[in-house]
From TrEMBL:
GO molecular function: electron transfer activity
Signal peptide: none
GO BP: any one term: response to high light intensity
Protein name according to UniProt: Protein PROTON GRADIENT REGULATION 5, chloroplastic
GO CC field: chloroplast
Coiled-coil regions listed in the entry: none
């Protein structure tokens, strides 16, 4: 059943807790808070650096990454890292011998080794 309407056409069930005008509501403590001066300087801290992640950033990236991860899971991390170290050392020796053959200096050799590492990352050998 609907509430009866008063002479103004509004329901008697609508009540408000606000008694006064907007001007009187700002006359008290609210007005003092709004007119308070702002601080002269605001101290801003540096954004927090995120903590470094533990783990391999190349995990799951590259064409050979699934094979590398599968092999690591089968033979174990310790043995896998030993094999990987031997393969990297052997590849560096091959690059060094190639550089000796063509007469490249040490700087060019280091550039080729860095290039091999970047290519290994892209292909997923370092996953």
């Amino acid at each position: 059943m609907a509430a009866p309407l008063s002479a103004t056409g509004l329901s008697n069930s609508l009540h408000s807790t606000f008694h006064g005008s907007w001007a009187t509501s700002f006359a008290g403590g609210d007005r003092a808070m709004l007119t308070r001066p702002a601080p002269a300087s605001v101290r801003v801290s540096r954004p927090r650096r995120s903590l470094p992640k533990m783990g391999n950033v190349n995990e799951g990236k590259g064409l050979f990454a699934p094979l590398v991860v599968f092999t690591r899971n089968i033979i174990g991390r310790k043995r896998f890292n030993q094999l990987r170290g031997k393969a990297i050392a052997l590849h560096s020796q091959v690059i060094t011998e190639f550089c000796k053959t063509i007469g490249a200096d040490g700087k060019q050799r280091q550039g080729l080794i860095r290039l091999a590492k970047k290519n290994g990352e892209k292909l997923g050998f370092l996953a």
